[in-house]
Amino acid sequence: MSEEILINVTPMETRVAVVENGVLQEIYIERTRAKGIVGNIYQGKVVRVLPGMQAAFVDIGLEKAAFIHASDIAALKPDASGELPEIRTAVREGQTLTVQVINDPIGTKGARLTTHLSVSSRYLVYMPATDHIGISHRIDDDEERQRLKQLVVDSAVEDEEGARGGYIIRTAAEGCGDEEIAADTRFLQRLWHAVDRRRKRDTAPSIIYEDLPLFMRTMRDHVRPGLEKIRIDSRESHQRVVDFAKDYVPEILPILEYYPGERPIFDLYSVEEEIQRALDTKVELKSGGYLIIDQTEAMTTIDVNTGGFVGHRNLEETIFKTNLEAATALARQLRVRNLGGIIIIDFIDMNDPEHRRQVLRALEKAMDRDYAKTSITGVSELGLVEMTRKRTRESLEHVLCEPCKYCSGRGSLKSPETVCYEIFREILREARAYESDRLMVLASQEVVDRLLDEESANVADLEEFIGKAIQFQVEAIYTQEQFDVVLL
């Protein structure tokens, strides 16, 4: 499997595309005016404590107050039964709290916070408040896991108070030698000491540690064995990445490439077209079937349909092949669209238990390469699969789009017929309430056309009933649902 990373940098935004075998798999977008803040550490001020929810709101200097749950407060330890103490035993209103962002603000929700602080490098994550050493589940060789854990134990040094801190060994550390691990532990401890100095010095609300920009984080988080090339279309950003790689990821220097081509870098593998397609609700499958992806604030639903695919043998075989293809396609769509939270997949009903098992296995295999943590249930009798995918940032649709100002995100408008009948009822109210010889209706072109055509007989009957003349005027700025009835 060939894999490339394309990085498009402009003064307004940075976009990173992960391409496998010439097909877009993931897209990351960071806009200069709205940078992601996951990983940033803030000196925050508690503005409200909610005992009933075991949560608190914290001012970290953003437009919306951020949110922290009792389970994310290091000072609160569960008792023997697993219950957490009352949140007010650890935080109070007006208190200064050092917090780290674990989820960006999403929709109407503020950022999600934790007091379990950590800082990251290429191979390790350093957690100063714990002594635990964890390791990525993607490293599955037991001997390699033990070797890496021992390297971290040997290279970690005690701080001024005699504490070593804890570490999480990242997937990229697989195969690393003792020098790379030792260099990372030294870097992380120096970085943490700098953060700790700012934490003791700065007042709330303020930022005390900011994560790397997107194109630099890509070098740290998304480079893995098998990556063939990293292309960057900005000379300045390319040089910054080269300098960063020399110090922290020297093995990627041979695959770093400045792309000066006249053709836009995202046109190389039709990335722009893939982004546009990822904003549609319908996804066509090669077989002729299709997916309908509907994203709401509560959950995302995915409906699988056979469409024009009729198969060559029987209905059950047609359904099975469509579901197999859909499992692979929807796993890619989840990554490209960055859909998270609760996801309900409505596969076409399968009678054969073996077919259900194979479709589920195909879905699990397709999700293996996903960076986000996922959890998948079995296929129910109704053909439904429930799964969760960790959500830490806005979906592609939320980054690039906004709710329709005409339908307010409903996805539908009242029909001209419905609006006409609303107008008739409003005319009756106005005619009964006020004295006037004539009435003027202001509405959109579609509604006025219907009033003068299909509804003309009803308009004539209404004029006769109320004893008043009714005139119509098109207002170009009105949406299909807007209208006014004016007395003349």
Word description of this protein:
Helix content is 30%, strand content 26%. Strands 4, 5, 6, 7, 8 and 13 form a six-stranded antiparallel β-sheet that branches. It has a six-stranded mixed β-sheet with strand order 16-17-18-19-21-20, with helices on one face. Helix 1 packs across helix 2 and helix 9 packs across helix 10. The protein is globular. The model has no long low-confidence stretch (mean pLDDT 89).
What's the short story on this structure?
The protein has helices at residues 142-155, 178-201, 214-221, 235-248, 271-277, 315-337, 353-367, 396-400, 416-433, 445-452, 456-466, and strands at 3-9, 13-20, 23-31, 41-50, 55-59, 66-69, 96-103, 112-114, 119-120, 124-127, 133-135, 166-169, 206-209, 227-232, 256-258, 282-284, 290-295, 300-305, 341-346, 374-376, 384-389, 438-443, 469-474, 483-487.
Query: From the alpha-carbon coordinates, what is the Rg to the nearest angstrom?
Result: 29 Å
- State the major sheet: 6 strands, antiparallel
Strand content is 25-35%
Let me know the number of strands: 24
Which range best describes the helical content: under 10%, 10-25%, 25-40%, 40-55%, 55-70% or over 70%? 25-40%
- End-to-end distance, in Å? 73 Å
Stretches with pLDDT under 50, minimum 5 residues: none
The best one-word shape is globular
Mean pLDDT: 89
Tally of individual helices: 11
By helix and strand content, what is the structural category?
Answer: alpha+beta
Oligomer: single chain
